[in-house]
């Protein structure tokens, strides 16, 4: 598996990201298109590929010079529970650290909180609704993570 990233909204990688997001968020979870496909400019899009097939995606954008926000984290159903999400989150954490960010924040669907906790995220909010789905904000202080140089 390989992970690529891009900020180019005309790239095939961005198209692959949209395809995964439409499958997971719009078709599976019933999120309205207008709420899912928004605020696309200024983000870095990550896609993980199984050979040439896109199977997971996420995007990040800077909130401040020290804080990066992770959004739209999705893995296709056929690839879940196979380490795809794990590889993707590790790559994003490594990229954020390499680019000098001090923390990463995200709004996790409540069923996914345990997944993010495995990677050093902590819950920092009460539950709230986003697109009709319960979420909680989480934060990861990057300097508190063990070195990932061997990953």
Automatic annotation (TrEMBL):
InterPro entries: Acyl_CoA_acyltransferase, GNAT_dom, N-term/lysine_N-AcTrnsfr
Highest taxon of source: Bacteria
Organism: Aerococcus christensenii
UniProt xrefs under PANTHER family: N-ALPHA-ACETYLTRANSFERASE, N-ALPHA-ACETYLTRANSFERASE 50
A GO molecular-function annotation: acyltransferase activity, transferring groups other than amino-acyl groups
Alphabetized CDD domains for the sequence: NAT_SF
Keywords per UniProt: Acyltransferase, Transferase
Pfam families (alphabetical): Acetyltransf_10
Protein name from the UniProt record: GNAT family N-acetyltransferase
Domain N-acetyltransferase: 1-143
């Amino acid at each position: 598996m390989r992970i690529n990233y891009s900020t180019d909204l005309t790239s095939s990688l961005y198209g692959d990201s949209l395809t995964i997001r439409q499958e997971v968020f719009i078709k599976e979870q019933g999120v309205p298109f207008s709420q899912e496909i928004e605020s696309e400019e200024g983000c870095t899009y990550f896609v993980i590929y199984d050979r040439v097939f896109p199977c997971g995606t996420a995007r990040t954008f800077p909130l401040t010079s020290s804080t990066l926000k992770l959004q739209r984290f999705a893995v296709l159903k056929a690839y879940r529970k196979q380490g795809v999400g794990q590889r993707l989150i590790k790559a994003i954490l490594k990229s954020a650290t390499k680019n000098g960010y001090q923390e990463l924040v995200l709004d996790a669907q409540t069923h996914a909180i345990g997944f993010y906790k495995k990677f050093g995220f902590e819950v920092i909010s009460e539950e709230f609704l986003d697109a009709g789905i319960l979420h909680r904000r989480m934060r990861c202080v990057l300097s508190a993570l063990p070195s990932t140089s061997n990953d």
